[in-house]
Amino acid sequence: MSEEKGKKRSKSWYVQHAKRSKNARELDVGMQGVLITCNMKERKCSFEAYSLLNEYGDQLYGPEKFIQDENQSESDDEEDDAEAALKKEVSEIRSSTENNLRRFQALDSGANNVIFIRTLGVEPEKLVHHILKDLHTTKKKKSRVILRMLPVAGTCKAFIDDMKKFAKCFLEPWFKAPNKGTFQIVYKARNNNHMKREDVIKSLAEVIGSLNHENKVDLNNPEYTVIVEIIKNVCCMSVVRDYVLFRKYNLQEVVKNASESKPVQLLHAHSEDLTNSSEKEKHEGQNNQEQEKIEVLDNTGQEVCGDSGSQEHGTATTEKNSTDLKQSS
Length: 329
Description:
The protein is an alpha+beta fold. It has helices at 3-6, 11-23, 42-61, 82-98, 124-138, 160-170, 172-175, 197-211, 263-294, 308-328, and strands at 33-38, 104-107, 114-119, 146-152, 154-157, 182-190, 216-217, 224-231, 234-240, 296-297, 303-304.
């Protein structure tokens, strides 16, 4: 065995190697992909996400192609011993991880119930919009665990200065003159305490306004929605269309019909109708009871009605009869 193989690597080498391998599997700056939220069951969510992304990715970009390593074409004649075979196997594994990168690759997002799938050679906004459009049109439910599917067109460090610098270049295709449009900013932070929602929204709104003064805020039905998702120290940003139409990019809500989207309001209206009818019946019953109490007979056999004029007439008649009896006596 050679001297190089006999040397022991220092502890710092293993620590740095572990950090590099860990960072390669985590959400980091300079990535594109799709953020997917779920309610527990992250493993099943990943399976559904791969199924959806591969199905619609093949529709837009064709079947996935892999880059083969040229070293794999070497003959097996050079494998004279077990050591050479082991070296080749290690090199093949290394080349497979570097060259044969998949179109979609799941990484650690850094938050619970959130999955980040990194994309290569794919436009995340276009792909996710295509998925939501098809689900909205067909009303066919294709997922049980996935809640929201948000594209990530770019990432940067989650600090105000870095975000403003990144947004100036990132938002130009949509908001820089002569381009313009109405917009809203949707903000969400996870596992981050040093960023404030108001400061982020205000800073990004100022950047959009500086690109073109005709850009206007519209919180009801904007043309563009700027999505800002912060996880730990990484800011994910994208600009999407039809955010309101596609129910905030919620895969469970977008497949529902209009009649299914407002069951609570219909139930509430029905309960109000029942309450009003019961109150009306109760009120009518009280009026009937009062009417029965008022309708009494006086001493002369005449009926005294419930209205005020009849009551005064009956009282005057009674007083006149009592006066006549006194005079006769």
